[in-house]
Design a protein that fits this description.
D-Maltodextrin-Binding Protein, domain 2, 325 residues
Length: 325
């Protein structure tokens, strides 16, 4: 009887100990360096945001946060690597809107944005902007639409590449305005903005940071930004919503994810660290200089955005007849 009681007590203590392990792990987290996978090359917009966050998180979590750039295949290589990582909070993914766009563009992906990742925080977002040469005489989106309808088949527009949010912005405008424009993809936002300046294309749909300086200098005319609100540094440029297209918002975000299965307490701790990181004026100023506005949202908000964005992008790609890769 005594042996049986001892065995029962021992089993109960073991179960209690095992039950406390996840709690203890979460409370102790982090007790070693954290790796933050960025699925794009160093120096790009997502990488800039990652370095702002990593520096702050290293201080607030009292552990070093190491950036691991894994570029290639429009972010798919790095995202797949993060999806296979241990869900212990020591490998994170800081990615762009590619996580919501790529499922609509690529036939086969080795990760699932919903099943393989736990959302932590949408950190920042940035609108796209429609630009033309000042000499074109086009001053507004209405002017552009009228000109394109008057000369069907003669207009083309540039973007940073097939499947980018800038490309999707152009395709959605074509559908909603019932106009025809030929898409001319470039390798990056900078070259696509320069194509407008050089007169290679009539219109550019580009990420705001690539065109902002040329807009301010008068080299390019901005017709509209694609955010919910006007861009603070370009207060005279209307949104597409103000230009007569209700609900037309097409921005690019940078967001933090963890592998699915990461303990909720760790997710909450990381979300709070994100909020702290972008609360300082210095971080906000850095983000603004990069063409971003700070969001620093909750895990639920990011999850809700992803749940809405993935099917919306898929539907737009189908309507636009974009070729899958």
């Amino acid at each position: 009887m005594r042996k049986r009681n001892c065995a029962t007590i021992g089993a109960a203590l073991l179960a209690l100990t095992l039950g406390l392990l996840p709690m203890r792990t979460a409370l102790a987290y982090p007790d070693r360096p954290i790796t933050m996978i960025v699925p794009f090359a160093p120096g790009g917009p997502t990488d800039i945001i990652a370095r702002i966050l990593a520096e702050s998180m290293s201080r607030s979590l009292k552990q070093s946060v190491v950036i691991d750039n894994r570029p290639g295949a429009a972010g798919n290589i790095g995202m797949a690597m993060a999806a296979r990582a241990q869900p212990d909070g020591y490998t994170l993914l800081l990615t762009s809107t590619a996580i919501a766009v790529n499922p609509a563009i690529y036939k086969k992906l080795s990760y699932d944005p919903f099943k393989d990742f736990a959302p932590i925080s949408e950190l920042v977002n940035s609108p796209n902007v429609l630009v033309v040469k000042p000499s074109s005489g086009i001053k507004t989106v209405a002017d552009l639409v009228a000109r394109a309808k008057a000369a069907p088949g003669t207009f083309n527009y540039s973007s940073p590449g097939v499947g980018t949010k800038s490309n999707l912005t152009g395709e959605e405008l074509k559908q909603r305005a019932n106009i025809t424009m030929t898409h001319v993809p470039y390798r990056g936002a900078g070259p696509s903005a320069l194509a407008v300046l050089e007169g290679t294309v009539q219109v550019g749909s580009v990420a705001l940071p690539a065109a902002e300086a040329m807009i301010k200098s008068g080299q390019l005319t901005a017709l509209a930004v694609t955010g919910k609100e006007r861009w603070p540094d370009l207060p005279d440029v209307p949104t597409l919503i103000e230009s007569g297209y209700p609900g037309f918002v097409s921005d690019t975000f940078s967001a933090l994810f963890a592998p699915a299965g990461t303990p909720p307490d760790i997710i909450a701790k990381l979300a709070e660290a994100c909020k702290v990181a972008f609360a300082s004026q210095e971080a906000r100023d850095q983000a603004r200089r990069g063409g971003f506005v700070v969001v620093a949202g909750t895990p639920k908000e990011l999850g809700d955005r992803l749940a809405a964005e993935v099917p919306a992008v898929k539907a737009l790609v189908v309507r636009a007849g974009l070729e899958l890769q």
